[in-house]
Amino acid sequence: MANLKELSERKELLVGGHRLCPGCAAGIIARQVLLAAKEPVVVVTSTGCLEVATTIFPYSAWKVPWFHNAFENAASTISGIEAAYRSLKRKGKIDKEIRFIAFGGDGGTYDIGLQALSGAVERGHRFLYICYNNQAYMNTGIQRSSATPKGASTTTAPAGTVIPGKIQFRKDLTRIMVAHQIPYAATATAGKWNDLITKVEKALATDGPSFMDILSSCRLGWGHPPEQTLTIGRLAADTCFWPLYEVVAGEYHLTYKPKKKRPVTEWLKTQARFKHLFKPENKGLIDTIQNYVDEQWQKLLKLCGEE
Question: Most CB atoms within 10 A, among 84, 109, 123, 282?
Answer without folding.
Answer: 109
